[in-house]
Specification:
The chain contains two helices and eight strands, in the order βαββββαβββ. By secondary structure, it is of the alpha/beta class. The protein has two domains: about 60 residues, 2,3-Dihydroxybiphenyl 1,2-Dioxygenase, domain 1 (Roll), CATH 3.10.180; about 55 residues, 2,3-Dihydroxybiphenyl 1,2-Dioxygenase, domain 1. The longest helix has 11 residues.
């Protein structure tokens, strides 16, 4: 078996318009596909992360809240590689997106920080 790349990561959001603006307009992910699915009464938005990975945004009606504290089993957070955490934090801050203080990963000795999407999903920046 050879699992050589992540094809996509799926996120369920509570408000399609707000999340689309966050991921597309603020974070800058290009739209690959955008479809309303009448049978499920939801939106599915596919965004390009890189040449092999997409971010799928699902917006059903009234999804349950995401467990956060204490942390539940399952996806803990989504991390994005950036060349310079400080510069990225400055850009996010200029858009009104707050980040936690920048710190150094104790294992990789690389700078990192967290910020949150509109539904509270932790998103990490890592050099």
């Amino acid at each position: 078996m050879h699992l050589d790349a992540i094809h996509h990561i799926a996120i369920i959001v509570s408000d399609y318009t707000t999340s689309r603006a966050f991921y597309v307009d603020k974070l800058g992910f290009p739209v690959v596909r955008e479809n309303y699915r009448p049978k499920k009464q939801d939106w599915k938005l596919d965004l390009k992360v890189n040449d092999t990975t997409e971010l799928e945004i699902f917006a059903p009606q009234n999804p349950p809240k995401r467990p956060s504290y204490p942390e539940a089993c399952g996806l803990r957070h989504l991390a994005f590689h950036v060349p310079d955490v400080r510069k990225t934090v400055q850009k996010l801050s200029a858009m009104g997106i707050d980040c936690e203080p920048i710190r150094e990963d104790e294992f990789t000795q690389r700078r990192m920080t967290f910020f949150f999407d509109p539904d509270g999903l932790p998103l990490e920046l890592h050099e």
